[in-house]
Amino acid sequence: MQIIRTLVVDDELGMCLVIQKALQRFTLELPEVAEPIGFAVTIADSAEAALEKIGAERPDLLLLDYKLPAQSGLDLLEQIRYPESEMVVIMMTAYASFETAVTAIKKGAFDFLAKPFEPEELRKTVKKAVQNLILARQIRKLEQEKHQVRFQFISILAHELKSPINAVEGYLNIMHDRVLGSDLEAYQEMVDRSLTRINGMKKMISDLLDLTRLESGQKKREIALNNLAKVAQTAIETALPVAQEEEISVTLHADDEMQMWCDASEVEIILNNLISNAVKYNHRQGKVDVFLQRDGEFVEIAVSDTGIGLSPEECAQIFQEFVRIKNEKTRHILGSGLGLSIVKRIALLYQGSVQVESEPGKGSTFRVRLKDSPPNINPDKRG
Amino acid sequence: MFANPTQITILVVDDDTDFLLQVKTRLEVLGYYVLTAESRQAAEELLAQTRPDLAILDLMMEEMDGGFALAYHLKKLYPSVPVIICTAVASETGINFDTATNEERSWIKAEVFLAKPIRFEQLVREIERLLKDKN
Question: Global pTM?
Answer without folding.
Answer: 0.66
